[in-house]
Every structure is written in C-alpha cells, then in structure tokens.
Specification:
The structure holds 2 protein chains of 2 kinds. Chain A is mainly alpha-helical. Chain A is built from 13 helices and 2 strands; from the N terminus they run αββαααααααααααα. Helices cover 71% and strands 4% of the residues of chain A. The chains are: A mainly alpha, B mainly alpha. Chain B: Belongs to the binding-protein-dependent transport system permease family. Chain B: One of its GO terms (cellular component) is plasma membrane.
Chain lengths: 304, 279
Amino acid sequence: MTAPSLDRRPDRTARQRRDTRTAFAFLAPFLLLLLIFQYLPLAMMAKNAFMDYSLLNPGAAKFVGLLNFEDMIHFDDARESLAATFLFALVVVLIVIPLGFVLALFLNSSLPARGVVRTIIMLPVVTSAVVVATMWNFLLDPSNGLINGVMSLLGLPRQPFLTSPNQALIMISVMTAWQQVGFAAILFLGGLQGVPKELAEAARIDGATRWQVLWNITVPLLSRTTLFVVVIMTVFSLQAFAPAFLMTDGGPQDSTNLIVYHIYKMAFVMQNAGYASALSVVLLLIVLGISLLQMWLLRAKWNY
Amino acid sequence: MTALRKPLALSLVLLLILACFFAPFLWIVSNSFKPQLGIFADVTPISWRTFLPLEPVLENYRTLFERTNILRALLNTAIVSAGQVALTLVLCAMAAYALTRIRFRGAKAVFVVILLTFLLPVEAMLVPLFQVVSGLGLNNTLLGVMIPWIASPFGLFLLKQAFEELPRDLEDAARIDGAGHVRIFVSVILPNVKVPLLTLGLVTFLFSWNSFLWPLVIAQSPDIQLIQVAIAQQGSPTQLPNWGETFAGATVATLPLILLFLLLQKYFTQGMAMSGIKG
C-alpha cells in the first residue's frame, strides 16, 4: 500500500505508526473474540478428533490416533447419517429452487398485492426453527393433524408421516423447504431485478412468447443466482438440527438422523466427544468444500 | 376473454400457495385460544371452526404463565438479544472503521484472518465451542449465550461495505479541525451509516431470538433458559402434554419478532438478502 498525498509529510513514519496503533486498538476486541471463539475451537476440534474423552471429564482424555475415523468407516452410523443429511438437503433444494423462482416472478410482476405476498412468504423465514418444528409436529400428526384433515377432505387416505421410515425424512424436508422458500424468493428477486429489461422487450418485439422469453432469456441469465441459492440452501440444510431433535429423535430407524443431531447426541448424550469431534471435522470439510465452491462461483465472471 | 381468465387462474394458484404459508400460523394462534378439548375436535372435518376460536378462552395463556418458567425465559431472551445486538454493532463498527478509514500496516493480514472464519460452519464447532465457553466459566450465564457470536464476520462485512461508500471529504474537515479517529468515528462516520446499523441490528436480533442449538447446550439451568429452549421442552414427552399451552407458548415466542418484522420489513429483507451472501 503506497500512500497518496495525504501522508507525504515530514512526520510520516510517526504518523503511520500512530495510525497502526489506533487501527489495532479499534480492531482488538473483535479480533480477540474471533481468536477465542473461532480459531481456538477450530484448533481444539482438530486435536480432539484424535482423542477419546467425555465432556463430563475432559481431563481424562486419551490419545487414540485415527481410531475415531476408523470407527466412522467400520460402523454404519456416520455413513447413514450423512446419507440422510444429503438426501434431506437434496429434497429441500429440489422444492425450494422452482417454487422460490416462481414466487420471485410473482413478486417481480405488477401484482396488486405484492407487499402482502412478500410478507406472507417471509413469515416462516422469520419464525424460529423450534416454533416451525412444533407447528409441523401438529400439522403432521397421524390422527389429529391438519394435513391429514385436508387429505381426508380430498378423499385421500390418511398418512403416518413422521412415524413412517419412508415418509419422515421427506416430510421434514418439505417443512424446511416451506420455511426457507421465502428466503430463496427474495434472493431470486434480487437476481431478477438485475436482468436488463431491454432484452426481454426486444425478444417480445421479435415475436417470442412469454414462455420463450422466460425459458430462453430470464432463466439462463439467472443461472448464477440459481447456483448461489443452491449453495446457500445446501449449506443451510447440512446444518439443520431442530427437525431431528424436536420431531423425530433421528428416527424412525435412524432415517432422519441428521449429522448435526448425530454430533450433538454423540457429544452431549452418549458422552463420546472424541467421536463427535471426528464427525465434526468431516462436516466442516464438506461445508468448507461447498463454501469454497461458492466463493469461486462468486468470483467467476459470468457474461450476459 | 382468455386474457382475463389467465391472470385469474394465476391469482388462484397464488392464493392457494399463500394459504399454505399462512394457514399453519392461523391454526396455531387460533388453537392457543381454544379450550383443551376443542383443539383437535375441530380438525376433521375441516371447516372455518378449525381456524377460528368461536368461544375464545385465555386459559392456555394463564396456565402457561403460571405453570411454566416462560416469563423468565422471555426476559432472558430479551436481555441476550438486546445485548448481542448492542455489542455486535459496537464491535463490528469499530473493526469496520479501522479497516476502511485508517491506513495501516497489516490490514491485509487482518482481513484474511476475518475472511477465513466465513468458511467455518457454526454447527460443526459446537463441541469445542462448548468446551471453550465452559472453560471460561460462562456455562449457564447469559453472557455465555451471546459471547461467541458478537464478533460477527457477516456484521463486519456489511458495515465495511457501508463505510467504504462514504466519501473521504466527509472526515477531512473534521481532521483539519484536529479531530482524532475516535471523534471522527463517533461524530462523523456513525451518524452516516444509520440504515446499515439498523439492518445489522435487526438481523442480529432475529438470529439471537431464534437461536436454539447453542442455548440448548450452554444454558441448561432453568433460571438461564431461553425462550426457544423453553418452547422445545414444553412439547417434550417428559411433560404431561398440554397442547393448548404449547400453542400459546409458540404464539408468545413468535409474536415479538413478527411484530418487529411487520414494522421494519424493508430493512429485515435487505439484511437477509445480504446475509445470503455469507451463506
């Protein structure tokens, strides 16, 4: 950093030194907390993944080398939990992307009640995961739930939902998508507002139908936003906890044993914090990979 | 004719979608005003009774506040959220000032150190973070609930962007008058970034009020419990189920945030759209 005219003074170095001191004084509280609550835990996690210990008595930790990672390979729990988590994320993304896109189109059009629409789809986003999970516990209740009520009104058979190993994961994905779709719509809306209007107008003059404009111009131009929303929703889903904790206890038959819930259970219930740390390292690496992909996508130049 | 029918069909589809988003809220709130026996009686067959309490009672709210610790939990959550907002704003604004308005050696290194924490998923750090905070003796304290999140990289970036947009001329006059960095920061810069500060404050409040996993592990004692944890344990199988109370609790836990959202929707939405950039 070469200094412009402002610093070209006789007392330049003294002033620079004073500025550096001031800058670090302004930064000190932030950096200190960052080191204590981000970097220290990171280092501890890396170390603890090679230990066998419990949170009740961390002093009695034993170094076990790669045993925790070997356990992850030898037992099925880690693989099953990760598979459930990825499936969960996949279903969430598959619902959120098209629905969020359509809602964004509505929000971007000259709809009369746009403000009301936006408010309603944002309500679930600002509601806590706990309240949403509690709400859906009742909505999905096999005997008294509102959704089964609607289904019987339509003449459809009642469903077991959360008590069925085939349906539970799908249902918590649907719930999470329901909660997050408003967020996706807002992100898509931001993308839509960046699309130059002249392109669509020119195409319309050339005789393209609305569908053709949407499919051949709008959708391709939003590819970057779409990738971005996919990444965000994936990372968000990989970190989901409340549905498994509050709705299914990871079951039935471990079908909804999401990875963060599995880590929580291993560390705080089973008191196997070393193994939980090893699982955390794997989750960290997965999310890290996706985040790096995101940064690369943001940097990449996408030309219209 | 078709030109008229098309928007009508679209509007109906939209109306149906909106009903799916809104009906669960209506159901929860209406159930919180129904007597215990009326709650599930009205589900099948579905009628307008399902969503409207015909003879509203306040019994659920009365027992909720009498029987449970919910008032305490609400108070704790309000303290934690307010504290977290205040401390986040102060720390992030100070750091953003240093990074945008002062030229100093090491700025790049500091920036990289902060940038890298963007990549760390909070949930994956749960176990070591618990050990660090308990090691500091902050287990079961309100400070322990908020302290790991105060130095928010997202908050810093949001403010840094806002600070960068301010013209240099702004502080030149003050500098010529002999003002130091502290005075420039407080009386020149901060008054010019009120909207970004409000946006960051709202998003921080939202995350703090709604956070669950961290309070669940770090604030277990009943006196320190936060609202989301209290709600979660209410519906748990260890307690005798009182559905009316659960619905009332969910309503109470959600209402403050919804009201705040309705009042300041624009800033909320802006903040969340920007928080998406963090991912």
